[in-house]
């Protein structure tokens, strides 16, 4: 999510997320963020269009990398494997800094508008993955189910990762475990 | 969704949905709805708290029936079978009138606030299904994945049903087909 970036952009992101957690998103002003990061408000606006952008500016990069990974996957990959490859690439971006991801998640969950915006962003990514599957010849309903089921696995893995104590679990690992669980759940049962 | 109800409530629902489609949700006033249904605004408020309630008042019933079906399922049912039973009960309520379901869907998709509200209602139902699975002893992450994957299948089935030309496909049938597809997608592939 660009979260590892050095310099003013990274400091502004860190400052914004900390203030959103401490004071609430609504109560935090751009001036407060700039002040904590030790820059001017004008510098803030060189990096972000507004304070909400701090939370959502990574969407485009995540989407792009996810779609590129799907398109780069071998022709023999199944629909669910293609989705798993796409989400693995998304997790690679998002999973870089759990501290910041956790703050972002806390802020979004505490605000109905942000929550609903996040849900619709996730729905949009899922729709784009389904379209990418269709372009690779996957049937219409099958593409939708694979993309939506993959998004479901992602959400659960993300929650596990964000909630986990200690540093053993990484987001990509949680995602892979989730896909394995989905396979087990959907398998015909013995007996 | 109470959509089959006779009398003033049913007429008001029908009138509201038709007006929302024709004029847009924002542009439709309670007075317009009452007038088209041939009742007074006061009668409207005996049935609905406000115009948005016309779109969302079925949530409680759908949730309740879904949870009851999950709880009534046999102890031998797998986590995904429990979710399928719950969603079958939801589809039984929602699937009664495709014409109204389609209008409702059109209205919601055309308005960002309504769309985001719908997404968060669906997320809430999914969280409740996961909790119900946990109460039946399903593991934490497994419960979340089963509920979210089930919700994914439901959304795709709903879309297919709403979009289908002609009357062959019913919502419960689309849902069953979706679960079968999920099983196929998640199955280990031969070769």
Walkthrough of the structure:
The structure is a homodimer of 191-residue chains. Chain A is an all-alpha fold. The first copy, chain A, has two domains: 1-56, Arc Repressor Mutant, subunit A (Orthogonal Bundle); 58-186, Tetracycline Repressor, domain 2 (Orthogonal Bundle). Chain A is 75% helix and 0% strand. The first copy, chain A, is built from ten helices and no strands. Chain A has helices spanning 7-23, 30-37, 41-47, 51-56, 59-72, 79-94, 98-109, 112-135, 140-163, 171-186. In chain A, α1 (7-23) crosses α2 (30-37) and α6 runs antiparallel to α10. The mean pLDDT of chain A is 91. Chains A, B: Residues 29-48 bind DNA. Chains A, B: Residues 6-66 form the HTH tetR-type domain.
The arrangement of helices and strands of chain A along the chain is HHHHHHHHHH
What gap, in angstroms, lies between the N and C termini of chain A?
Answer: 46 Å
How would you sum up the major sheet of chain A?
A: none
> If helices are DSSP runs of H or I spanning 4 or more residues, what is the number of helices of chain A?
10
Strand content of chain A: under 5%
What is the strand and helix layout of this fold?
Two copies of one chain form a homodimer.
Chain A: H1 7-23, H2 30-37, H3 41-47, H4 51-56, H5 59-72, H6 79-94, H7 98-109, H8 112-135, H9 140-163, H10 171-186
